[in-house]
Fold this protein.
Amino acid sequence: VQLVESGGDLVQTGGSLRLSCTVSTASGFAFDDYAFGWFRQVPGKEREGVSSISTSDGTTFYADSVKGRFTISSDNHKNTVYLQMNDLQPEDTAVYFCAASWGPVITFMRGPSMYDYWGQGTQVTVST
């Protein structure tokens, strides 16, 4: 199973980006058996949960720092998860990772240790 993120870029404060995470699956992997999350990390800090989504019923969770600015969504036919990021701020600068966690129903934001597969990350830089 491979998760490939794309969409990271350099953007000015107040700008927008849409990150994509496409899952390349081996036989037997069912996209909608998993929940997906977006995390971010800056050097010297722990990986931080940004948002997560249930592929079975669309339930979403957001970190307080991104509520109202970021939107997570999924397209089960394309095996792709998106993160629409609006009103970006310098503190959003980080490497953003996509991850898959077995079990599509989520009732809370799962921590990084609960995720089974990770992408390689995509850099988001917000300039002042």
Notes: Residues 37 and 87 are 20 Å apart (CA to CA). The radius of gyration is 14 Å.
